[in-house]
Design brief:
Length: 74
């Protein structure tokens, strides 16, 4: 379970990094046609990375609650 959470965190951070860099490149694009698609693509990846990180946080909370219950019973 720990390995899955670590991999999800890295995946979420990677997607978030790709989204932020694409958004910045979309803003700095000299072509007027490339600005809007670059910003939309970057924004979508920022949202997707945030969702993956939020899901990972929920899994971490569930994991810690289950671990605490197991230690109280023993």
């Amino acid at each position: 379970m720990k390995i899955i959470m670590i991999l999800l965190a890295f995946l979420g951070l990677l997607i978030l990094y790709i989204g932020i860099s694409t958004y910045v490149q979309g803003i700095n694009n000299p072509n007027h046609i490339g600005i809007i698609p670059g910003m939309l693509f970057g924004g979508a990846f920022i949202v997707l990375g945030g969702i993956v990180l939020a899901f990972d946080l929920i899994l971490l909370i569930i994991f810690l609650i289950r671990k605490r219950r197991k230690t109280k019973l023993a």
